[in-house]
Amino acid sequence: MNATKHLTAAVPDVGSAYEACQRLAASSYENFNVGSLFIKRRLRPHFYSVYAFCRLVDDLGDEVQGDRLGLLDRWEDELMLCYSASPRLIWFQALQRTIHEFDIPPEPFLRLIEANRQDQRDKDYDDFDALIEYCTFSATPVGHLVLYLYGYFSEQMAGYSDNTCIALQLTNFWQDVARDYKKGRIYIPRSDMAAFGVDPATIQNRNPTPEFQRLMQFQVDRTRELFRSGYELHHHLQRDFRLEFSAITAGGLSVLDAIEALEFDMLTVRPTVSRSTKIRIMLNIVARDLIGKTPVPASAFNSRSVR
Predict the structure, then answer these.
(1) Contact, 220 vs 259, CB < 8 A?
(2) Helix or strand or coil: residue 299?
(3) Which of the four pLDDT bands, split at 50, 70 and 90, describes residue 22?
(4) How far apart are CA 111 and CA 141, in angstroms?
(5) Pick from 286, 295, 293, 215: nearest CA to 253
(6) 263: phi > 0 → left, psi -120 to 50 → alpha, else beta; which?
(7) Closest CA to 228 of 149, 306, 303, 142
(8) Which of 5, 15, 70, 271 has a 20 to 30 Å separation from 230 between CA atoms?
(9) pTM of the predicted model, to two decimals?
(10) Angstrom distance (rounded) from CA 25 to CA 80
(11) Residue 210 pLDDT more than 50?
């Protein structure tokens, strides 16, 4: 997709704007579907509008050639029109309706824009705390937006959601170590790399040494713990959101399983989850819920080697 065209699109009616958001979601690869059948039909257009914002701001930060910071500034200007006037771009026409219907403040959107500005400045992170701080811009705002759409937003709910969103973001980082390196970024904390005896040349040469494998096992294990703590949220949810949240959690865990199945070699092969696995995950979640069991069992949060 040509990201520069995002800033020159014509404004249609709101119905067509939501359709444009849906087409964008359908054309994008994600670990789990944006338009999950667990999402109530009336909410799906709003999920598409939020997804379109998130997807396109990432494209502006990652894909476009030229003045990315300038384009992100213009993206922020367009966002703020949703709160004060009439936005000019097709996706924001839909987003404005979503913002007003669910009373969503600008902060989560602004933090996502800021995350992409940070990507232009910071290419690696000193330690895990610094990486987590970045995730409070790149990941946790998405969870807050979902909570607003379902009518669940509170500080307590956001705390649980934050752990899950950080875990999802870290999972994506571990899945895309090689891809991110091509973009000039390393999200594995420098202090962790030093502790395990791994240097950037290992990633550059796409050489999954034993040291690299141990490093990534450490990262995967700490990510599983974040998924485990974040899953406490499901106790507070009604059935439709509980199933969707469980599907998202199980989808993230399945990517970690795929990484483990490759023996932590995500340098030569990108770990992915097949369509059949996604379907199986969703069916298992429904089946467990119907018989009164926790949709994602406790064993799912464990390493494959200890199940």
Answers:
(1) yes
(2) helix
(3) confident
(4) 7
(5) 295
(6) left
(7) 303
(8) 271
(9) 0.90
(10) 23
(11) yes
